[in-house]
């Protein structure tokens, strides 16, 4: 039996209506679609993770390695255990929550934040093992399931526009359009966006990677050609290749060693809350694009991909990165015909192979990397077509899910808004009997949480 036959048998490819060649192409497609995270995740987390004795771009390279390793491990588990064609890596939105809300906003040490991610990853493994996590996710109202992908997309779109300096703070209106064409940073970002959207519209595989790389090359060409000084549209200095991640890997242990118990419990709970609903939403969103959901909007055998997610989160915290989750870009591989874990195995192998490119990450200007957030955000808005906007409960629940995420700068807050609104509107229109008891319970618990959280009783 040849390698191809062995792989086909191991992943039961034929019974899933696929073949080995299709799975390999799908794996390459998914990797190209999501590999931007190798660049984007480090730039987001490096705003919060500061290691004495190391420059910003040295830390960026460390986090890039942690990103690659956690993605490879989590996707490998997805392949070999869950046999699903989903790629995993540190999630966009969750890394922003880690950096900007927990570490910078709440002034929690980044080591403690990593420790909290580790603990909630272990808790997720335990809950997944007993089926509790899948049970709660199945209680999500269907309009929330159908709209969460678009909500995450709008949130990422908002972050990306800010990082590109297209949208800037304003005292009167909170945000406004920036002085785009007086800003080389924003000009190059917009040109990169135009290129990437054109490539995506033409169905070019790896459109985001090509767009990011081309924009970065353009910035360096203008700098080396004397149009701009170093530090304007390119990093002012570049560090040597940094493959030693020991200052980062294992730092969660230090976060566990010196903590205030009450504060730590609250941080773990906050991560747990955000990660639980964000991961569920992203996994459902990916499955929605891949047509893996059943007629009730649920993913069959959800416990296995959830376990891959939990293992990835735990391992990611150990090596020094934020929560790992399933990527919506996995739908690109599914569209190419990927149906089994062989697709995911290819993705995991390609992530490991990308370790040789780590030194290049530091040379990529951050405006080039944040192009990915805008493009992915727009792509994810496609999920809105599955919302029944004529049904009041659907319209209110889905509408709040989508809009509260960017306005509150929180994926979890958007999900909570949709979950709380659904039973309220169902009762108002006389359809209380269509709401499960568990949905009432979750809505009540979330409402109680926000009463305490907004009064400052808990984080």
TrEMBL record:
Membrane topology value: Multi-pass membrane protein
Name this polypeptide is given: Xanthine/uracil/vitamin C permease
Location(s), subcellular: Cell membrane
Transmembrane segments annotated in the record for this chain: 24-44, 56-81, 88-106, 112-136, 148-168, 180-200, 207-228, 240-257, 264-286, 306-328, 340-361, 367-385, 397-423, 435-452
Protein family per UniProt: Belongs to the nucleobase:cation symporter-2 (NCS2) (TC 2.A.40) family. Azg-like subfamily.
The entry's keywords: Cell membrane, Membrane, Transmembrane, Transmembrane helix, Transport
Any one annotated GO CC term: plasma membrane
GO terms of molecular function: purine nucleobase transmembrane transporter activity
Tree of life domain: Archaea
């Amino acid at each position: 039996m040849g390698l191809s036959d062995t792989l086909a048998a191991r992943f039961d490819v034929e019974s899933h209506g696929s073949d080995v060649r299709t799975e390999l192409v799908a794996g390459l497609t998914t990797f190209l679609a999501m590999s931007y995270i190798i660049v984007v995740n480090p730039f987001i987390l490096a705003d919060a993770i500061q290691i004495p004795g190391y420059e910003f771009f040295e830390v960026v390279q460390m986090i890039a390695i942690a990103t690659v390793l956690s993605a490879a491990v989590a996707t490998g588990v997805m392949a070999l255990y869950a046999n699903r064609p989903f790629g995993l890596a540190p999630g966009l939105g969750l890394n922003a929550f880690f950096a900007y809300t927990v570490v910078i906003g709440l002034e929690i040490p980044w080591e403690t934040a990593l420790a909290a991610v580790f603990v909630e990853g272990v808790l997720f493994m335990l809950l997944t093992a007993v089926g509790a996590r899948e049970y709660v996710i199945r209680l999500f109202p269907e309009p929330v399931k159908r709209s969460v992908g678009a909500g995450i997309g709008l949130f990422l779109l908002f972050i990306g526009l800010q990082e590109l300096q297209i949208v800037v703070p304003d005292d009167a209106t909170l945000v406004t359009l920036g002085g785009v064409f007086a800003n080389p940073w924003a000009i190059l970002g917009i040109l990169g966006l135009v290129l990437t959207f054109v490539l995506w519209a033409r169905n070019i595989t790896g459109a985001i990677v090509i767009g990011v790389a081309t924009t970065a090359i353009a910035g360096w060409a203008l700098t080396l050609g004397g149009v701009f000084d170093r530090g304007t549209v390119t990093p002012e200095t570049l560090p040597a290749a940094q493959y030693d991640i020991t200052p980062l890997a294992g730092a969660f242990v230090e976060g566990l060693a010196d903590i205030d118990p009450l504060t730590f419990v609250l941080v773990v709970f906050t991560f747990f809350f955000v990660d639980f609903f964000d991961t569920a939403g992203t996994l459902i969103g990916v499955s929605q694009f891949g047509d893996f959901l059943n007629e009730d909007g649920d993913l069959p055998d959800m416990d296995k991909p959830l376990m891959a997610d939990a293992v990835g989160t735990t391992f990611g915290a150990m090596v020094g990165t934020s929560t790992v989750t399933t990527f919506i870009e996995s739908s690109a591989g599914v569209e190419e015909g990927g149906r089994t874990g062989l697709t995911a195995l290819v993705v995991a192998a390609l992530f490991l192979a990308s370790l040789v490119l780590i030194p290049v990450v530091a040379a990529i200007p951050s405006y080039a990397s944040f192009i990915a957030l805008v493009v992915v955000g727009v792509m994810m808005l496609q999920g809105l077509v599955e919302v029944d906007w004529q049904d009041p409960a659907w319209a209110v629940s889905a509408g709040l899910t989508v809009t509260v995420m960017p306005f509150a700068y929180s994926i979890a807050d958007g999900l909570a808004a949709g979950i709380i609104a659904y039973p309220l509107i169902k009762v108002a229109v006389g359809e209380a009997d269509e709401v499960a008891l568990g949905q009432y319970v979750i809505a009540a618990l979330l409402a109680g949480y926000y009463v305490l959280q907004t009064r400052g009783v808990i984080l």
